[in-house]
Amino acid sequence: MIDRAARHLVVEGVVQGVGFRPFVHRLAGRYGLAGWVRNTGSGVEALIEGDGEQIDAFLDALIADPPPLAQITALHVVERPSTDVRAFTIVASETTGGTQAIPADVALCGDCRRELYDPADRRYRHPFINCTNCGPRYSIVEGLPYDRERTTMRGFTMCAACRREYKDPRSRRFHAEPIACPDCGPRLKIIEPSGEALEDHALARARRLLGEGKIVALKSIGGYHLACDAYDDGAVKRLRAWKERGDKPLAIMVRDEIELAHVGRVTPAERTLLESPAHPAVLVEARPGGRLSRHINPGVATIGIMLPYTPLHWLLIDETSGIPVPASLVMTSANRSGGPMITADDAAVHALFEIADGILTFDRPIATRVDDSVSQVVAGEEVPLRRARGYAPLPLSLPFPVPPLLACGADTKNTFCLATGERAVLSPYVGDLSQYDVFREYEATIERLCALMQIEPEIVCYDLHPEYWSRRFAERRYPDRPQMAIQHHHAHVAACMADRNLTGPVIGIAFDGTGYGEDGHIWGGEFLLAEYASFERAAHFEYVPMYGGEAAIREPWRMALAYLRAAGIAWDERLAPVRALAAENRSVLETQAERGVAAPLTSSAGRLFDAVAALLDVRQRVTYDAQAAIELETLADPALHAAYDFAVHDGSPRRINVFPAIRGIVEDLDRRTSVPVIAARFHETIVAIVRRVCSLVRVDCGLNGVVLSGGVFQNKTLARDVAQSLALAGFSVHRHRAVPANDGGIAYGQAAIASARLKGAR
Ligand code: ZN
Ligand code: ZN
Ligand code: FE
Q1: Residue 562: phi, psi to the nearest 5?
Q2: Ligand 1 centre from 347 Cα, in Å?
Q3: 147 CA to centre of ligand 2 in angstroms
Q4: Which ligand has the minimum distance to the alpha carbon of residue 116?
Q5: 611, CA 20 to 30 Å: which among 99, 186, 626, 749?
């Protein structure tokens, strides 16, 4: 007589769309247990019956060895009376209540890739092959729980063979919601400029176009891409011109390992990241002297590389079809100058024939836009630059539980954050809200994610900046909800603290381009004594004027003139930024300088990098965000060089005076010191400033933990050298891990701050 027991389980976390129910089913079989399992609004629920010891073993295995893409955040187990059921079944989903995690899209897995190339497999060369471990997820979800009838696959009726696999707990495709095959799955077609759509040989036609140096638009996971031969100068130049993106680097997709080694110097950590389930674009060192088009990444030494992540990408780029295709393709989102990536089929046809010679598409709709994610590796660790496909909207945790809450984020590189309890969902990258189309998509995506997560925000937080679009949206959309305005750099620091599960307080360094300060000036070179609920400004770069306001962001020579003047150096024609100033503008600038009109004050570290880049004549005008700083970093000599002089003035806050460094740079220029050496000395100066200020602040307040945030810390040289230098001085240094250091992390920081303030309020 065995001791028959029963337990009811509730599993929370990322447990839908990752093969969790079949896993539970298999596990129950292994331990001879009966019962049932189902998806619910908040996760997975199961009843397990049988021998008590076997149930314990089952639970151990459940925790120890879940499916590769699952993340269990909580497991609740309650004893139940046994009912004498003898079989184990997967029952229909419970659709009500709760807020479950939404699975992220996953790149083609190894098993599916083997089948894709197996002539004996019924999915041989099927462009929509997927399984419980891979395939589209968030991008096709229309509602929760995650089941086929609430995805854009609902229009495809499964054939008998697919249905058998879908229902068979032993199959790799048991409840793989987007399951498909050549008989019942989406159909590929190529649309010609004439409007004619061809299903036969669509892939061959696309490959031929790419081989001929033409541009092909193709539908991927979260939107349309534009692709062309990465070795073809003419094609890349044409694509870049149409995109109106200035010199901003384009990402490429490479065919295989050989090509990967050919175009980049890829470290083992970078390779692991490239091959991770998300398959982000990874910024790696470009191999110098390669034959890739120089129009891909002008002026920078890195290149953004992706591996193929859909079966369609593989079939397009592989070597097996007999039609030669370039081994590297430029693969860039199909949109013009910062607009949203096109996701709708009619919009693609409407807009993309301006540039594309064919549109390779299919009839599985995209429910939600998801851009490609971009990451880099700093000191062996992944640091996300843009968090989207493969990451969003997987949940993050907050330091304290919150009521349903919306954090609106920043206006550039926008993401927003929805939170409830301790769970925060950071939206995929939205973009620059000053673009009308992006702003409209921002509004729509907030509504969609609120509906999916069944969250009705009770608290709304946004940036302190009175003119941010995100703030205006919140004030208009949620006029009767309590609102919280949060200072930009506090949000940067809190994002990094929460990202690293720190409890605070810390010395928070936020170096970025622009953020509205509590004194109405533009902050951006900030040392904060920070905890989640509040902060004190411990030190900042001395204010300088931005001549012409926003124009100074696009034209670094304006910042150089401001720094020259502050350093007491005359605007002499021998200096490059002075030459960039046309004679007729000189009197305007001089008036602005003397009277302080049209010249808001800033402490921005980003603008300081711009000023130095202009002084060295690296760049007088930028065509994309942080271009001057990136080019300055690229040029910097890697050897060790002495820092320039600077001063830190006492006070509350302390003020960092870099004008001696500006004088040092001009002296070096007059001495004909090389630009790479001056650039290196400047970087070294920033490192020395950070160490000095942190040491002073440590004496004041006894804090030893430092967090590094803000877009300026995307500069790998700076992030690495600052961290090393602080570590040598005995600080414990924390960088971002899951959310970007740039404004893409602001919404998460806002939510973390709100969680602490609301806790204090209770
Ligand atoms: Zn798979
Ligand atoms: Zn089928
Ligand atoms: Fe910022």
Answers
A1: -65, -45
A2: 30
A3: 17
A4: 1
A5: 749
